[in-house]
Structure formats: structure tokens, C-alpha cells
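Our collaborator T.R. sent over the components below with a one-line note: 'Predict the complex.' Nothing else. No constraints on interfaces, no templates requested, no preferences about which chain binds where. So this is a plain run: every listed entity goes in together, and whatever single assembly comes back becomes the starting point for the next discussion.
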Amino acid sequence: MERSFNPETPRRVVFGEADVTDYDQQDLPTEVMPLRMGPSHPAMHGTVRMVMDVEGEKIKNVDIQIGYLHRCFEKECEYATWTQVFPYTDRLNYVSPMLNNVGYALAVEKLMGIADRVPERAQFIRVIVGEISRITDHLTCLAAGAMELGAFTVFFYLIKAREWLWELLEEVSGARLTHSYLRIGGVVRDLPDGWCPRLLDVLGKTREAMADADKLLTQNKIFRGRMDGIGIIAKADAAGWGLTGPVGRSTGLDYDVRKDHPYLVYERFDFEVPVGSVGDNFDRYACRLEEIKQSMRILEQAIAKLPAGPFIIADARIALPPKSETYNTIEGMISHFKVIMDGIHVPAGEVYSFTEGGNGELGFYLVSDGTGRPIRCRVRPPCFANTAILSKTLPGLFIADVVPTFGMINMIGGECDR
Amino acid sequence: MANVILERLKAKFNAGEILETGSSHGDEWARVEASAWTAVATFLRDDPDTLLDMFVDLTCVDRVDRKLRFDVVLHLRSVAKKHRVRLYAGVDGEAPEIASLVPLWPGANWFEREAFDMFGVRFANHPDLRRILMYPEFIGYPLRKDYPKEKRQPLVRRLPGSV
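Returned assembly:
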């Protein structure tokens, strides 16, 4: 994307320089004042508290306090069977639940060593629902980010598109938001009839909504004024802070799990990974906008190549039998009972599996002792690392810059606090 | 390919520092003596053959029955070489403490705070070792195996008779 902004001369990122020079020369007395934003604040889409020291309107330092949405995910998982963890993962990043489902399912399958036995159709379906979720994740971030800067129309355009996509996922899974659609070894049920053409139709409509939003935002002087050169994160910081996803890529760190460590069937698709050059808010915005387009490309290719076949692994110890067998045969009923009551038996071992979530590398570190329940189910939340760097990025900015910077980091409380 | 990391580790450090290495489910891992934690991490980050410069994850596992009760688990990745490693360091259950990695990777800050919050493992020389997810008044370490799942510690006092 063409940038008129020159990163060599940041407009107002260094404390005590640039446009406050006049005030400094006048030697106006300022004193440091504590200011608390949140945990409940209209411009924070997420429950987070920021304890700031401000001097005039400049932030001197900031302490980001998270944890308001902590729901003991990791503790609860230790008491659930491997399958019962799926509903909990829905509630991690609740704007892209399918991607969490995918990440968790792949981790358990890696530990069980059945990753290559998962039917191809199931893998394609996972890619499809995952990419839809990625689009809804980015749409939410862009929509909320624009709304917080006063562009309410854009919010409606994008949220409307998100709703169409969620309706499709609702059709697949039965739930609008907490899908729990994946299972170990596959997915819970096949795609409904006529779903793929409907998806293509929705993608067309979403493109139009995105074009509208693009026209309203990308060349909008007010929007650009609050995005360009604000909240710059240096590329040198990205690796050390563990930044991934659009936030990491906006700095120029070219890392996308789908490209660098392909999983599922991603290596069969043709798509590009947008990388920023400046690492400011606008780069994060532009990266997300482009990623939505790339996800749509993946979706169209996946639908064109979607193979026929079973949608879950044929193994009575892992997958539930079809309902006709459960109700009509003794073997089906026993196997249903065993999978539900004892849980799937995952061999003892430890594994770290990672996928590209909505906000970056979503990792699952699982420890099993061979019983039906995990000993440890650790999530590596991408938001957690991405939010941590705010304590370095925000000092030097104005209070008003907190809103777009925080918005473009896209902290999702459910994932950050678990 | 990926075993470069483990071979470099075994060549550089002695058996008292690198206790065990292995590869399972496609993940390479090494068990490190806690006193060598910083030295091993610094070496892995800076050695041109390993270059594990990206901080991925740091957490703990409570292995109740072991003498060194807690395992501090670190995941690293190399941006240039695209390989990964998992490091374990066992720490004592009575007074768990290990060196902080914040000087090496600033991103370790919050992850170590979380490990402290959830398991009570102290990170020596951490710049700001406070609870992060739980509130400061919280007593105990919730992800330890001996912390009951149903235990409640409400901050707000309830009126008698309310549920």
C-alpha cells in the first residue's frame, strides 16, 4: 500500500519533541498526574485497566493491568475430558472460536499421532471454517477500531458482514458464537447442503462491504491522522516480545504459521502474507484488511477443491458412532458410552502445537498421563504477548492515541486472561 | 535438521547442565539444570547455529510426585532458521526459584509474572514480579495441583443469607 507517511520523521512519538516544542519553550509548568483508564471504559473493547502517569496530555509511563476476564481456563481443563475442552476453547478468542477449536484439535491429534489419519474432507472443512473465523476476527477489530475513532458507519458495514459469516457458521454448528464444531479426529457433522454456494455469495457481499469501509477509511484524513506514525513498534522488538499475527507482521517480521510451518492443507493454497514496513497503527489496519482478502482467496480455493468423503476419523475409540448405530446396536452404544464417560484416551506425553489464530501464534502445550483428562492444558495466547508491549509503546503518546493503538493491538480479554 | 539445537547444546554444556535431551511428536526438547538456565538460554539465543531469538512461551507444570516439583517450560523459535526447541528446568517445590529471562527477552516479563501468579515460582531479578491475572489479595497459587478447583476467594464480602 502506498504510504505518504515517512517513517524516518515520526510526527509525535518521541516524548518532548515535535509538536509540543512550542509549549516547552513557553516553559509552562506541568506536573505528573496519575490517570486510570478502565477496567470498564467506552473506548476499550475488552476489560483492561491502564494506570498511567500523564504530564499534560502525554503519557509518561503506563501499567497495563489484565485479568478481569480470568475464568480459570487451564484449571477447568484439568478436570474435563479431552473432548469437553472444546467448549472452553470457544471462549478463548470469542470473535474467532473456530480457530481456537482448530488449534486445540490439532494439538490433541499431534499428541495422539493421528494427524495424518484425519480425513481430507475434515481438514478442508477445518480450513474453511477457520478462515471464516479469521475474517470475522479481523472484521471485528477493524469495525471496533473505526467506531472508536468516530466512524460509526464503517462499524455497521463491517459488523453486518460479520453477521452474515456468523450466520453461515451457525448453520454449520448450531451456535452463533460458541461453535464447538470440531472434534478430535474431524468435525462433528458435515457441511449442510447448498452451504458452499451460500458462502461464495456471502463472500461477494462481504467484499462490497469491505470496499465501502475501505473507501471511507483508508484515504480519510481524520482516520489517517490518528493511525499514521502512532504506536510504532520496531521490528527489532518483535521477536524478543514474542509478537505474532498482524501485530508482529506490521513491524516487518514476516511470520505466519500457515506459511512458515504449514498445517492442515494450507500448503495447497495460493495466498500471500501481507507485511508492514513501519509498525504503526495504520500498518496493523492495512495488514488486517489485506489478510481478509487473502482469507477469501483461500476460501474460494478450498471450496473449489473440497473433496468428498468422511468428515471424521473412522475409529470407534476416538469418534462417536453415528446416532443410528448408538441407538440400534450394542457395539455402537458401548462405544458411545466409553467415549463420553471415560473420554478419549490420549497416550502419555507432551506436545506443543501451534496454529495461526486471529491474533497470531495460538499455541497449545498439552501434558497427558495416558488417562482421559489432561494433566496440563496450557494455551499460549497471542494477545498476551501483543498486549504486553503496550507498556513500551504507549509512553510518549497522547492520551487520545491510546484508543487507536489499543484498538489495533486487538486485545481479546477472553484469550488474554483465559 | 532440527537436532542441530540439541547437538550444539550437548557440545557446549556438560552432562551436569544439560540433563537430558529428546525428541517426541516432532518437538525437540532438553532438560536443563536450573542453575544453568540463563547460560543455556543466552547461548541458544546468540549462537549462529541455533539463533533462537524469538520468545514464544514460558509456563510451568506441577509434577506433584517429583522431588523437583515444578517444571519451568520455555518454548523458543528462530526467526531465521524457523526451528524450535522446548526447554525444561526442574525447580524445588518448597521454595521454587529460577533466574528471570527478562534481560534476554523482554516479552518474558508477563509470562513469568503469570507463572508466578499461578504456580508461585519466583523469578530472581525479575523487574516487576507481581500477580497478573489474579488480584493482589489472592492467597495461594491456583494452578498447583493441591489447590482445590472449587475453592472460592471472593473479594466482595457477601451479605449473610445471600447466595
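Summary for T.R.: The CA atoms of residues 138 and 288 of chain A lie 6 Å apart.
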